[in-house]
Write a structure and sequence with these properties.
By secondary structure, this protein is of the alpha/beta class. It is built from 10 helices and 14 strands.
Length: 293
C-alpha cells in the first residue's frame, strides 16, 4: 500500500461513490476502481460493501479510514507549519463559539486585526458538545465554550468567570424596582433554561442548586440557543438564568435583570484546542491576547 492508494481509498470513503471520488481526484473512474481492487487484494480484505453505486465501509474499511484520516490530517498540518515558517501570521483562523461566550470575541478580533491584517476569520456557532466535535474533526482550530466539558484530548485557557443572573419578565414580579431574587422565588415562575444537546452543562448546574434548597421548579422550555430563550422571556413567558454577559446586546425593556441572592451560581468558560494538533501562528497569537488579561 502506498500513499496514492491510501488517498484514493480515503476520497472514495468520503464521497461514498467511486464516480464522485473520481471527479474530486480529477481521474477517470476505471483507474480508480482498479486501484481500489489492487489495494483490497494487497491487504487481503474487503474495504467496502457495494450497494448499487453506493460504497459503504466494512469493519476493516472503517479501521483503515480512521488511520488514513489521522495520516492526512498530519500531512495537512505539516504543510501549514512548513509554509508558515518565516512567513509571519496570515491565512484564515476558524473559531467556534457558544453564543453565551461571544462577548469575549469582538473586541479582541478588532485588536488582533490591527497587528495582523492578513488574517481572516471564520466564525461558527454551537454548543460546547458540538464545538468539541468540530475541533476533533478539524473543522475549527479554537473554540470558546462554557464549562464543564470533558477536557480529555484538549488543551485550554480558562477565561474569567462570571455570575449567573435571573432574567424575569416584569409580569412575573410584584415590584419593578427590585434588584434581586431568590431561588425560592424563581421556583414559582415558569423557567426557560439553556440545555446542551448532549453532556452535562449549565442546565444541570442550575437544577442542582434548586435541589440543594429542596425546590422543584417548573421547566417550561429547554434550548441550547440563548437568543431564543431571551426572545421568549421578552414575550412574557417567564424567566431564565443565564451568564450576565449574554445580555450585553439584548433588549431588556420588558424584563428585569436580577441578582440571585442566598446562593452563588458561577459560569466558567475557556478557549480549547486539540492537544495533538499543530496550532497555527494565527491561533497562537489570538490565544496570547487572552493570556494578557
Amino acid at each position: 500500500m502506498n500513499i496514492k492508494q491510501l488517498r484514493y481509498f480515503y476520497e472514495i470513503a468520503n464521497e461514498g461513490q467511486i464516480t464522485r471520488a473520481a471527479k474530486k481526484l480529477h481521474i477517470a473512474q476505471p483507474p480508480l476502481s482498479q486501484a481500489l481492487k489492487a489495494l483490497e487484494a494487497n491487504l487481503g480484505v474487503l474495504l467496502f460493501e457495494r450497494n448499487g453505486r453506493q460504497m459503504e465501509l466494512t469493519k476493516a474499511g472503517e479501521v483503515l479510514y480512521e488511520k488514513a484520516k489521522t495520516i492526512f490530517y498530519k500531512i495537512e498540518e505539516t504543510i501549514i507549519e512548513v509554509k508558515e515558517t518565516g512567513k509571519g501570521v496570515r491565512g484564515t483562523l476558524s473559531i467556534g463559539c457558544n453564543k453565551s461566550c461571544f462577548s469575549h470575541i469582538p473586541k479582541n478580533i478588532s485588536i488582533y486585526q490591527h497587528s495582523f491584517p492578513q488574517v481572516k476569520f471564520q466564525l461558527i456557532e454551537g454548543d460546547s458538545y458540538f464545538l468539541a466535535k468540530q475541533l476533533i474533526e478539524r473543522e475549527i482550530e479554537l473554540a470558546f465554550i462554557r464549562l464543564p466539558i470533558d477536557m480529555n484530548g484538549f488543551d485550554f485557557l480558562e477565561l474569567p468567570s462570571e455570575e449567573y443572573v435571573a432574567v424575569v419578565h416584569n409580569n412575573w414580579i410584584d415590584d419593578p424596582t427590585r434588584t434581586s431574587i431568590s431561588m425560592k422565588d424563581l421556583a414559582k415562575i415558569p423557567l426557560l433554561l439553556l440545555h446542551r444537546i448532549r453532556g452535562v452543562g449549565q442546565f444541570e448546574i442550575i437544577m442542582d442548586k434548586f435541589m440543594e434548597e429542596g425546590l422543584k421548579p417548573t421547566i417550561l422550555c429547554e434550548s441550547p440557543n440563548v437568543d431564543m430563550l431571551l426572545d421568549l422571556i421578552n414575550e412574557g413567558l417567564g424567566a431564565t438564568i443565564v451568564p450576565q454577559s449574554t445580555l450585553l446586546k439584548q433588549n431588556t425593556k420588558n424584563v428585569s435583570v436580577l441578582k440571585i441572592v442566598n446562593t452563588t451560581i458561577v459560569s466558567k468558560s475557556a478557549i480549547i484546542w486539540l492537544k495533538d494538533r499543530y496550532i497555527s501562528k494565527s491561533a497562537e497569537r489570538f490565544i496570547e491576547l487572552f493570556k494578557q488579561k
